[in-house]
Design a protein that fits this description.
12 strands, 13 helices, single chain, 501 residues, alpha+beta, disordered N terminus
Length: 501
């Protein structure tokens, strides 16, 4: 496959072998790649059928031609010998050779005259144990001659045989006593055998050398098969070439994007670490100043300024933590610190932590818990961050006087599901499909509300996927938004069921 990809690329060196391998695999798994495999398979089958068909048709034509040639030669020999026999009988030339001897000498002379390697070779063969001059050369020929005995009109037997390492096309014709002169001659030479009219006295064996012909025929059939295969497969190859190159370019672009994403994630993680330490120091110092650990502030206006520093520093620290976790998730380095805890305690803790935001926004939080709830095996800190992100976003988009719902459900088949629902402006389907992308911000619906970083929902999705769970959003314009996180059933411990307090 790498060789094929090298042909596709035309010798380009800038792409890695992994890209070529990935592109080749992607091509073979695509619809066009499957089509090319089908074309190659069809070309192979058609080439084999065409080659074998040409070989068989040509061989059959050769056999038919040689059978006609052999039949003509044999008819000439029989006519000549029969005429000689009749003339010998009429002239009473008893001193002349008998027809059988004359026939044998004539055949020998014929073979010498046609001494070419590819010429016909005639032999007159007697029956096994009853021959006058030439017995069968092998048991197979003897069996062929004996198969003629007892038949009214025996047909010639044709077959390909090897003689002395040479392949020949042999036809064995029955030699039948049709003339009284022939019978009398044989009985004179073999008085104990009592020959009669229509007895099978032997056979004519006519051999046609076919070694060179078969070799050339096989070569021609192979060339035809290869030509058909190359033609059809080549057409499919060139049709698939442009598609393969597009896949190659796409794979290269994807690898470059992955590399760029990893580089960007590494850069963000490094910058976030650089900001993390001094920012935590700023937050601690602002906390000390608000607590007046080193003494009272000289001016109350400073207290408001320090409170703003602390609040914005805490917000910035949260954004930096989100960047760190999201970059680690993108690089596959985000890890879970799992333990077993009661999800109800988690939900109540999140609700208490949001009390200040709820009061400032004029929004109420309605929490719905089942009477019994299993323990959850998960990363407790990350689970709390997930819930906090969802509740904060719900508060942000809920108008004053509205309510946010926090609903929890659990069962053995679907797992643990927590839904955070608001009664805000909602989102269109187009917007909802984009909010899970990093840095995709939704415009704040209320004047004075803080614009989000665009990291919350992508981080929630990454953390839930790391737990093997899901995040599902349901929304419509002016109908609010429902965000549901679901932990899989294997993370629940039902043996630890306790009634809700």
């Amino acid at each position: 496959m790498l060789a094929i990809s090298g042909l596709f690329e035309g010798g380009a060196d800038e792409t890695t072998p992994m890209t070529r391998r990935a592109a080749a695999i992607a091509f073979l798994e695509s619809r066009e790649g499957f089509g090319w495999i089908v074309i190659v398979t069809f070309a192979t089958i058609l080439a084999v059928v065409a080659g074998c068909g040409f070989y068989k048709v040509s061989l059959d034509a050769y056999v038919a031609s040689k059978n006609d040639e052999k039949g003509t030669a044999l008819e000439l020999v029989d006519a000549f010998v029969s005429n000689y026999s009749n003339l010998r009988l009429q002239l009473g030339a008893d001193s002349a050779p008998v027809p059988a001897t004359f026939r044998a000498h004539s055949i020998e002379l014929f073979n010498k005259t046609h001494g070419a390697a590819n010429a016909l070779r005639l032999h007159w063969i007697g029956r096994a144990g009853r021959s006058i001059a030439t017995p069968p050369a092998d048991a197979k020929m003897a069996a062929s001659i004996e198969s003629f005995v007892g038949r009214a009109d025996p047909a010639p037997v044709s077959q390909f045989v090897a003689i002395g390492g040479e392949q020949v096309f042999r036809t064995v014709y029955p030699s039948i006593a049709r003339e009284h002169s022939c019978v009398d001659c044989h009985n004179k030479l073999q008085p104990d055998l009592h020959w009669q009219l229509n007895d099978v006295m032997g056979a004519f064996s006519i051999d046609a050398p076919v070694g060179e012909f078969v070799h050339d025929l096989r070569w021609q059939a192979t060339v035809i098969a290869l030509a058909i295969f190359v033609l059809i497969a080549g057409v499919g190859f060139w049709m698939s070439l442009s598609h393969y190159r597009r896949i190659r370019e796409r794979e290269a672009a994807r690898e470059q994007a992955v590399a760029a994403n990893q580089a960007g994630a590494s850069f963000l993680a490094n910058i976030s670490h650089q900001l993390h330490t001094p920012l935590k120091a700023i937050i601690r110092f602002s906390e000390m100043m608000l607590s007046e650990v080193l003494g009272p502030l000289p001016n109350e206006k400073y207290r408001a300024c320090v409170a703003d520093i602390h609040r914005n520093g805490a917000h910035l620290l949260g954004v930096i933590n989100d960047i760190l976790d999201l970059s680690q998730a993108g690089a596959g380095k985000l890890e879970l610190d799992e333990n077993l805890f009661d999800p109800r305690d988690m939900l109540r803790a999140v609700a208490r932590g949001m009390s200040g935001r709820l009061e400032a926004a004029g929004v109420t939080l309605n929490m719905e818990l089942p009477s019994e709830l299993p323990a959850l095996r998960a990363d407790q800190a990350k689970t709390r961050r997930v819930l906090s992100h969802l509740v904060i976003k719900a508060i942000k988009f809920t108008p004053s006087g509205g309510a946010v719902e926090l609903i929890c459900r659990a069962d053995r088949e679907s797992g643990l599901a927590v839904t955070v629902a608001d009664s805000g402006v909602g989102m269109s389907p187009e917007r909802m499909s984009r909010v899970l992308e990093a840095l995709e911000q939704v415009r704040a619906p209320k004047p004075g509300s803080q614009q989000g970083s665009g990291l919350g929902l992508p981080l929630v999705k990454a953390i839930m996927e790391l737990h093997g769970g899901t995040l599902r959003l349901e929304s419509a314009p002016n109908a609010g938004t429902r965000a549901t996180i679901t932990f899989p059933p294997d993370r629940l411990v039902f043996d630890a069921l306790r009634p809700a307090a």
